[in-house]
Fold these 4 entries.
Entry 1:
Amino acid sequence: MELETNPASEASEIVYEAAPVFRAEHGESRITRLVEQQSAKVPSVLFLGAALAAMSASFVLELAGKRRASDFIGMWPGPILTMGVYNKLVKTFGAR
């Protein structure tokens, strides 16, 4: 007789649905919905391209000896990619 490795494995297959949260304080304003609708129209590849362009510009400025400008432009890719993630979430889940 062969024993199962994990006798409780069937218990972990239970799927629980998340409870919906509909509270007035969690509602979005008209402005937020408008921003999300407009943001969803922007292609996701635009954010990736903008981040790559900022990295390239920073690199060129560094080679040109413009250290301060290079550092300034070099800080842009992180926030640009974060905006791209927000854009993707809005497209995937929509305004809630």
Entry 2:
Amino acid sequence: MTAPQWPDFYFARHGETEWNREQRYQGSRDIPLNRTGQLQADANGVLLRDLLEHEGVDPASLNWFASPLSRAAETMDRMRAAFDVELPPVIHDKRLIEISFGTFEGRLHAEIAREHAVLAPGERDESYWQFRPQDGENYDDVAARLIDFAHTLTHHAVVVAHGGVLRVLRHLVEGTSRGDVLNWPPPQGAIAHFVGGRMVLYSAENTWDTGID
């Protein structure tokens, strides 16, 4: 599947939820942030503000996109609270919703692995990209949504969405292999800057580049 030319943009995964902490399949279910997730979102706002200032980017010049699920929408709102200038309104785009795990949603990773022989993150091979739970999606479905979204995405936009979305973006933008992104744990409390076909991750403590040469 071939993506269009991607502009440079900033991406944040939503903060932690109780289902994240419990290692439950969350997917398209609307699960709110827990207190840790709220603090991660607050810190991400400061991080993004400092990053934009360092790069000379006017935050008021950006478009701000978020998944409409509450954990992403609240993360976006808390991040924007770090800015003392009036920002454009947030565009809540359904194409940014997390991959649907269908009947797996709400169940523990370990439980599903035991009952259905479906490997948890960190143990998957590339074939999992095509795996579709009952009533759910596979990663190709998410890729199609994101390729469509790319025609809306603007240069230096800010996007707040989900871990599965970030996995697919790494594959589409960087060309990272499906096997690698399926087993990569997308961080919470970090900003990913997609620039020139590479991803640079920023956190309060570390900055590291996962782009390919």
Entry 3:
Amino acid sequence: MNEIKLSVVVPCFNSRDFIAECLQSILPYMSETIELIIINDGSTDDSVDIINRSIQNYNNQNITVIHQENAGLSAARNAGINTAKGKYIAFLDSDDFFNSDFWQEVLPLLKDTTIDIVEFNAEQFDGEITNIVEHIDCSVFSGRVDISSVGELSPAFKRCKWYPWARVYKKSLFHDFDIKFPTNRLYEDMSTVPAIYLHSKVIYGINKSLIWYRYHKKSITQTFRQKDIVDLVYAVQSLSLLAKDNIEIKKALFPTAQRIFNLIKYMLVKNKGAKLPFVEQKALRRALLSFIGNFKVSRKVQILILPLYLNTIIRFRKK
């Protein structure tokens, strides 16, 4: 039997309108060295029927369908990681799909098992792929880059575009360093993907868009829920734990921590019903203090007097 090189993990929850197109960007390219893992995360529509119809002519391929009660995107990805037999893992959301160039660009690289991450770009589209909303430039490196220090990772950390599906990862990174996607959390990528980069020694950058990323008006980036702010606090807490007392890592993680802080402030200002309980304010302040040396003076003051500062934002918003 040929060794499986790549496991493609596709979580699916109520994606009847898109899952067939997603799978059709994978199935024709299947081989003995490619594995497809579909996680049905408790779908209540006819997604499962569409999945079964899509894969019925590929009985001889390495395809696994996992059925679980609805537990969220992170739990579905974690289930895929635990099941995967491939040396490398790719994630693809059920409403997105691969550019056909993905296979010819990525697969040859996986013969070099010293590579830890292959990164690439994406195009966000609305409705039709001719209607491009945004070019998502996640790939900051060009070709093979050997990493000998955290500082050499700074281009990726400064860009801080942590979409999980914009990379292919060596599976051992997840297992060796006990890296998981945090369950029941939004913004799960903001702590998980940086952790993988911190443990990577070789990164290969492809300056091409290999993913079609679908725009949704009701996505978490377009709508607000109170849980958004709490989960952003959790994300910056996770970054603080990653940094520990390492000055280099703090400097690397700082742009993401700053982005999270700015997002929280933006949500509090923009959404009249938004609030951050005092216990969460204290947790946010503790986490941000890990990175305070990298903030500008004005931001340092905001962090030091954080509860007062956030309450001022909320009072100003209500006026």
Entry 4:
Amino acid sequence: MTETAGQQARTTDGDDPRLGEIGLDNFAPYLMNRIMGRYNAALRDEMAELGLTTPQMRALAVLSVMDGLLIRDLAVYAVVEQSTLSRALDKLARDGKIRRESDPGDSRAVRIFLTEAGRDDYVRLWPHMARSYRNMFRGIETTERRVFVETLQKILRNVRVHDF
């Protein structure tokens, strides 16, 4: 029996359409990546002025809210591979932006804390981050934004592999 083009485009289980059928503009992971790419690009000049990379900026941002995280937890919250984060933290430590401390409960574990210099850099960067965030939601009603964020939180719970 000959398959039609529509049948060829279906996956082997016959239920899920292929990406070509969905289209990139309707594929949420693609859209989320594009949004974050543009958000990060909007901050590139400000980060460069402070000598920061995207992983460094993410680490400072997370630590501004949850200081003293273990490196493995910081990697999860900053959405950075642990090896990439380690290099970013090395540079931040050399520049006096963070300090490392042994965890009192586990001498093998290390906690990361912002220094005043790191907090100052974050405070200088925040207005640019806030402006980019505002621009992202320009023309979107507060209720729509709230529902969108709640939906993202549900999606995160669905895909979460960590306990937090």
